[in-house]
Amino acid sequence: MKKLLLIGLRYHDYTTAIIDEITRQGYQVTYHEIQPRTLYFKTLKVLSESAWQSRIDAHHRDILECGRGNHYDCVLFIQAHQFSATNLRALREQQRQARFVLYNWDAVTTHDYRLHLASFDRVYTFDPDDARELGASYLPLFCARAFQDLRRLDQHERGVYFVGNIVSLQRYEALVAFKRYCAAQGIPLRSYMACTPRVYTRLLRAGHLATDVSLRSIERPAFIDMIERSTTVFDFANHRQAGYTMRIVENLCAGKKIITSNPRVRDEPFYTEDRFLVFEGLDFSAVRDFVARDLDEPDHRFEQFHVQTFVRTLLEGPA
């Protein structure tokens, strides 16, 4: 059996979905967190960036020590900017026979990994602008198996949902405005907004008593229930990156309609006016009619974005 070393960020259940799929495709997987998300590491990063970097470097050296004597066919990174150049060179020297692959689900503008490009045999990114400028391969995010065959409940209500992290004041204000619009139009809206204590503090300083925001991520059953009971999702993109959110990909594959602030979808082969509504600023005037419209092809599932295809591309290269 082939062996794969995965070093990456544990992000919700998505990393687990990747590991499960790699295993399904015939690999024995060893996984290490690139950036532990324990309270200790989170606190240290707030108190001292230099102390955090020193501790994270030691953590990566521990990963190298664990790999000593093991020979992997592939070393896959999901993010790499946390690694020092010294530790990455040492890992390449240790695993000379391995194919090194990097996948980035953050843009260079937020996580700069350009220093490490030459250390990988193949580099993929979810951001089309970064792919073009860096000479990397463009690979959008994926839809996990759990979202590929969902039930359709209460579709007659034509409800809308939003689940996501509040990473900026702009995103929070857009969501508040959208909630007001839906209430005024009688559109059922389910939402769950999460943020970090740091972002919550910024909201308070900006005058927002954000009682509708949680400091915890939504539980998976509640998330699935929201999708199954909605026909449409609301997506407010991070304008510092061009790649599509996981929210867009999952809902595309789940047969949902998508309200988004990302105008790039208009140029995609999967774009149709019955499936996507692009809004500008806080103009939601077209939402009511869009929500009331049925999909022309409600059973189309866009298999090219399934996690099965995503992992196969990482392991074998583009088809």
* N-to-C CA distance: 23 Å
**Low-pLDDT stretches:** none
Instruction: Say what the CATH topology of the largest domain is.
Output: Rossmann fold
Order of helices and strands: EHEHHEHEEHEEHEHEHEHEEHH
Tally the helices: 11
Rg (C-alpha, Å): 21 Å
Give a structural overview.
It is a single chain. The chain is α/β, with parallel strands linked by helices. The protein folds into two domains: 2-145 and 306-316, Glycogen Phosphorylase B (Rossmann fold); 149-300, Glycogen Phosphorylase B (Rossmann fold, 3-Layer(aba) Sandwich), CATH 3.40.50.2000. Helices cover 36% and strands 18% of the residues. It is built from eleven helices and twelve strands. It has helices at residues 14-24, 39-47, 49-67, 85-94, 128-134, 169-185, 197-205, 220-228, 246-253, 287-292, 307-316; strands at 2-8, 27-33, 74-78, 99-104, 122-125, 137-138, 160-165, 189-194, 213-214, 232-235, 257-260, 276-278. It has a six-stranded parallel sheet, with helices on both faces. Strand 7, helix 6 (169-185) and strand 8 form a beta-alpha-beta unit. Helix 2 (39-47) crosses helix 3. The longest helix is centred in the N-terminal third of the chain and has 19 residues, at 49-67. The model has no long low-confidence stretch (mean pLDDT 91).
